[in-house]
Amino acid sequence: MFKLYRNLKYYKLQVIIGPVCKLIEAVFELIVPLVMADIIDNGIKAGDTGYILSKGLLMIGLGAAGLCFALVCQYCGSVASMGVGTRIRHDLFEKISSFSHAELDRIGAPSLITRITNDINNVQWSVAMFIRLVIRAPFLVIGSIVMSMMIDLKLSLIFLIIAPLVSFALYMIMSRSVPFYKAIQRKLERISLVTREGLTGVRVIRAFCGQKDFAGDFEKANNEHAQTAVRSAKITSLLNPMTTVILNLGIAAVIWFGGLRVDAGSLSQGQIIAFANYMTQISLALVVVANLIVTFTKASTSAARINEVMDMHSSIEDGNIAASSTASDGRTAKISFENVSFAYPGSKEYAIEDLNVEIMPGETIGIIGATGSGKSTLINLIPRFYDTNKGRVLVDGTDVRDYELKTLRKKIGIVPQKAVLFSGTIADNLRWRKNDADINEIKKACDIAQASEFVEAMPNGFDSRVLQGGRNFSGGQRQRLAIARALVGRPEILILDDSMSALDYATDSKLRHALRTETEGMTTVIISQRTASIRHCEKIIVLDDARVMAIGRHDELLKDCEVYKEIYEVETR
Fold first, then answer.
1. Is residue 409 part of a domain?
2. For a surface tag, which of 130, 241, 259, 487 has the fewest beta carbons within 10 Å of its beta carbon?
3. Could you list the residue range(s) of the whole structural domain that residue 106 is in?
4. pLDDT reading at 327 higher than 70
């Protein structure tokens, strides 16, 4: 947690002023019982109304001054805690953004979302409590004991007995409740996962009338979280009753033994009242300390989870070759796979094995194969979403690991299997590859992608709004907009990962024709499940069971490759 608290260096003023103000408030609070004792012993006993009123005004003044200092502390605590939370959230998001697909797959989106929201909120709250209470509460406990000792040393021995008993109770409760906090965070992640799946897959759930089954899954996750939270709450709920019983026994002892000392003439009635007030202050302060322990325990658990992400290093390290030194000479292969083998993290089987392929500049390459044959894996190695386990991938004769990631990925326009659009306008979505793309470039890309017709038919054209996830567009429209987005800025390499599956045959044919005629010089890699989409490619790579079975043109593969022939015959039946 101390790693994250380093962010407090940006709020030194608030960290100093806040606790000092709270300390002054605590001093005023410790003076109040003495003033009250004075009122009882000298004002009420003598029946001096003026004296009572003057001391009463002093108490009101002490309370008002304490309130002002408390408000200043609250303000400082809010500024510092919100600032620290914002900085940690920014750093964590930046760290997550630097991860490769391997790290994202390992941690999982629901866990990352929980860490960047709930866990940071816990740390943020602990910062506020640190500034507001971490000095005040212990000071009140120690100050109350010292003040009571100044009044009567013998009677103050009760305080020295009570304090260890309360501390032991705190230890017993906290030691048993701490293990539950990590479990609660894991249960929250499970709820986040189930909720995310339910919201993204709501149409599928409704299509199969699975609302009840899914509600059951959510209820199970929710109940597991509730049960863990209740078990933790049952233990921590014992804290206040235990401390209250101990402290009330202490107050009873003060009154009993104090009464004996009043009878003996060693103490006054006002001093006994002051003793009782100090005991009450200790009671309240120790409850605050207990809550602080709970807060810091939760924050410590959350901080460990945040630091786990912050200490993680991406398996993809940036190279140092920039754009100026990567121009193609036209004779070197645009993309080369040399003895490439790759297995996903945690898997013992290769998704791609002993792959050797060359793709020349300007070629249009088709990749086809059964589900799970390694098609998407192959193209994910080109922009370095993953690194190879063996062999190397080259672009323009240079190992992709030697490129700056920004340089490498600017060469590539990629359209993934799932067409993802973001909230904003159509134009905003199409400018992701090139921020300063003018409207003519955008229109040209849409013309090639066969998206111009439906975009221009919309009331606001390219300024039309895109709802979250592009849900106000059909699947085919989303795919065409995703293809147009990849084409803006004319990338050197265009990768279409089964990104025409939602298009009808007529639109698919027009799109392929436009790609052939309007993207001269662009190296295009098309992954498809159907031979009709790639039959006109200059070269077709057939994958099966993580290996290349054949490379050739459509007619050649029909004669020489059984895997390709089977796929073609199934389509044409």
1. no
2. 241
3. 2-182+236-310
4. no
Structure tokens at 187: 């249960």
C-alpha 83/C-alpha 224 separation (Å) is 34
Q: Which residues contact 350 (CB under 8 A, 6 or more apart)?
A: 341, 342, 343, 389, 546
Domain count, the chain: 1
For 226-244, give the DSSP string. HHHHHHHHHHHTTHHHHHH
State the pLDDT confidence band at 325, using cuts at 50, 70 and 90. Answer: very low
Average model confidence (pLDDT) across the chain: 85
CATH number (domain holding residue 49): 1.20.1560.10
Asked if residue 54 belongs to a domain, the reply is yes
In a domain, 572, yes or no: no
Q: How much of the chain exceeds pLDDT 90, in percent?
A: 18
Number of C-alpha atoms within 13 angstroms, CB side, residue 261?
A: 20
Instruction: Please give the order of strands across the beta sheet that includes 412-415.
Output: 412-415, 493-497, 523-527, 364-369, 539-544, 547-552
Is 512:482 a contact under the CB 8 Å cutoff?
A: no
Cα–Cα dist 354/338, whole Å: 8
Provide the whole-model pTM. 0.72
Residue 416 lies in a domain: no
pLDDT tens track for 65-81? 999 999 999 999 999 99
Sign of the torsion angle spanned by Cα atoms 337, 343, 348, 352: negative
Question: Which of 11-20, 295-304, 486-495 has the weakest average pLDDT?
Answer: 295-304
Neighbours of 78 (CB within 10 A): 16
In this model, does residue 429 exceed pLDDT 80? yes
